[in-house]
Amino acid sequence: MSTMLIHGGRLIDPASGVDALMDLVLRDGRVAEIVAPGRASVDPDARMIDATGLTVAPGLVDIHVHLREPGQGHKETIATGTAAAAAGGFTAVAAMPNTTPTNDSPEITRWMQAPERGASVRVYPIGAATRAIKGEVLNDYAALKAAGVVAVTDDGHPILHDEIMRQVLANATREGLSVIQHAEDTRMTGGCSMNAGPTAFRLGLRGMPPEAEYGLVERDIRLVTELASTGATPHLHVAHTSTARAVEAVRKARRDGLRVTCEVAPHHFLLTEEHVGAYDTNAKMNPPLRSAADRDAMLEGILDGTVDAVATDHAPHASHEKQVEFERAPNGITGLETALGLSLRWLHEEWKMPLKRVLSLLSEKPAALLGLQGRGTLAVGSFADVVIFDPAAEWIFRAQDSRSKSKNTPFDGWTMRGKVRWTISEGRVVYSGDVSS
Amino acid sequence: MPLNTETTDRPTPAPEEPVLLSETCAAGSLLSVSGLTLEAVSEILALATRLEKEDPLKRAERLAKRRVALLFYESSTRTRTSFELAAKGLGADTTLVSALSSSIEKGETLKDTGLTLRALGAEAIILRHPSSGAPWLLERETGLPVLNAGDGMHEHPSQALLDLRTMLAHLRPGRDTVTAETLAGVTVAITGDILHSRVARSNMLLLPRLGARVILCGPPQLLPAGAWRVGPGIEVERDFNKALAQARVVMMLRIQAERLAGLQLDLEEYKAGYQLTEARLAEFAPEALVMHPGPIVRGLELTGEVADGSQSLILEQVHHGVAIRMALVLRALTEAGRT
Fold first, then answer.
1. Which CATH number belongs to the domain containing residue A15 in this structure?
2. Could you say which of A369, A400, A424 is where a domain stops?
3. Best of B5, B16, B198, B230 to disrupt the A interface by mutation (most A CBs within 10 Å)?
């Protein structure tokens, strides 16, 4: 492989604490050198990227995406989903197992990672915790891990049965895998399509009570506590946290020394149930948009460090699937191309979170919590995964311009901050944006 | 990090503001009472009176051979018939599409059914649908004026308007123009299955804007505690007798067994607490007007004697429905309807 020199930019690598004008040399798919501006000695045929005025950061890592393959290629394919990831600055994504069939075998895990899928960036499959995500029979975690699975979950079909969840945590811990739980007590949410409360009442929609989420988070933490008392070190990761009390439960578990982590999606720290508006199915997701107090608690959790990662829960759906009655529409929105722009605009610009910390939530910390070696950092020797963006650029996101196969987003027309100019995955340029403006 | 003080006045720029229901109505549509200004309510009331008094033969020229579709995904007697009579009374051709006996049974979506009706020449669609918000989808996808004839548990705006007309006929006779004070001093007790009632929602959103005080009354399973937060001028009173004692109008609601979704309710206990009986009426509200959007279940939410009694306006409400719906259909199809 060839060599690439990215020069003139402000290099921010949260993992190593670097934040300075530095040049970056990539060689053979790895980070080769970080040197003072103009000091790199590279071959004359090396590709040069002028990053003057731009920020150079580790490629972003999204640990919660739905790439829809196998089986749901009308919504998204691994190729289109990872193209959207690249356009959003992501170089590694962890793909949820609720495909058709569900990913509960080494064969599907390998199929998802095969070169034939045409992925632009690295895909880490997440395996189903139980067979066909039915919450009954545990899958073979050793075999899944050997095939490349980085965590297990029954995402979307949470494991309600205490004994099954206990076994999942125990077996996953034995294999060194994280357990990701979509915390929703589905016994409380049947027929519900938004957050419970006055807005749902006014709109005549059945609401999911917040306790359906935090109740299950608290149950899971109890199970982790029990297991930890036997000397094991289970890792529970709470997906797309949306309620104040769930964040509080994670905060407390961490104080108690447990390995419990959580992520928050941009829509949960930016939007509230009021954004359902006139039954906008692009404001329908699970967990639903919550109250303003919950939204503020997500932000507080991000700012105080309780929240370990910003993850998008990128969930593409075809337009015909969303153009139906609100109660019948599937849950979920796309998110890969808006996460960076929204995080920079709101977390950094409006709410004054240091840029280094914002980038850490989108790269270093999510990579670390799933143990993705060599990702989320620009340390010498790590993968040559780089995002180069213009931190000053303000732009309008247009859903129709999305690389994703689906356009279901509530952020169409929103103003973003920070435009991705290049995304480099393992040394290859996988996205280059408009550099003229 | 103490954020609570900072987050309350956080600026949210214009494009990100949530869309309000009242802002989305196309001309001629009636999806929610929130979409109506008091001026528009006055216009509809005045138009209803004008049309009601008009010579039927002249009236039938107003929308002669115009096409109106009635799209009904749920059963209906009063609403469907009165919309149909209203449209026909104005001379329009009507066609009824119901969920059974149409391609809806074969899986056709609401969007496609709406587009099909438009291609067949429908100029407005009157929609009843079990999903809250369905009229917004239909309006968005067809671009036609849509009259919401009841969407799920959400709203039934034409019912609220005919209820208002019925109330005004008794409390403010001769008045067609309403203001924010028209119903000042009037307390309306809406009682029963509020949770599942689109009639309750439309009335509780409309009546306080005319100065009325709305008391919601029912057991917790059928009336969530936070219901009063829907809008100003709304209170919750669990004790039916206390609610009755304050009420000038008592609006009774049917228990919607079809929407209970597994909710357990002891009917005997319910009747003991909330059934409107002659004895209760005589003791607590001997002067109150008794209303009910129908269908009534005699012996459940109210006794047969009350339904047939001298305080009952139930059939008058039905009668007012035709005039109100003539005004709404005319408004939907013509500029004249909007004067």
1. 2.30.40.10
2. A369
3. B16
- Give the pair of three-digit tokens for residue A273: 């149930």
- CATH says B27-155+321-333 is which class? alpha beta
Q: How many structural domains does chain A have?
A: 2
Q: At the topology level of CATH, where does B157-257+266-318 sit?
A: Rossmann fold (3.40.50)
Chain A residues whose CB is inside 8 A of the B10 CB are 350
Interface test with A, best of B5, B7, B113 (most A CBs within 10 A): B7
**Rounded Cα–Cα distance for residues B319 and A128 (Å):** 60
Indicate whether A198 belongs to any domain.
yes
Residue A260 forms beta bridges with which residues?
Answer: A236
Do A204 and B152 make contact, defined as CB atoms within 8 angstroms?
yes
The predicted-structure confidence for A388-430, as pLDDT tens digits, reads as follows: 999 999 999 999 999 999 999 999 999 999 999 999 999 999 9
Contact: A277, B20; criterion CB under 8 Å: yes
- Tens of pLDDT, residues B115-169: 999 999 999 999 999 999 999 999 999 999 999 999 999 999 999 999 999 999 9
Q: Do domains B27-155+321-333 and B157-257+266-318 have the same CATH topology?
A: yes
Predicted TM-score (pTM) of the model is 0.93
Chain centroid, CA A19 distance in Å: 24
- For B269-327, how does the pLDDT look when each residue is reduced to its tens digit (9 = 90+)? 999 999 999 999 999 999 999 999 999 999 999 999 999 999 999 999 999 999 999 99
Burial state string for A173-190 with b = 16 or more CB within 10 A and e = fewer than 16: beeebbbbbbbbbbebbe
Among candidate residues A319, A334, A369, the one where a domain is terminated = A369
Same domain, A64 and A20: no
Residues 284-303 of A with CB under 8 A from B: 296, 299-300, 303
* Beta carbons of B300 and B255 less than 8 angstroms apart: yes
| CATH number for position A67 | 3.20.20.140
* Shortest CA gap A51–chain B (Å): 31
A278 contacts in B (CB within 8 Å)?
Answer: 19-21, 23-24, 133, 136
Structural domain of A33: 3-56+384-432
Cβ-based neighbours of B145, under 8 Å, separated by 6 or more:
B26, B27, B28, B29, B123, B124, B125, B139, B332, B333
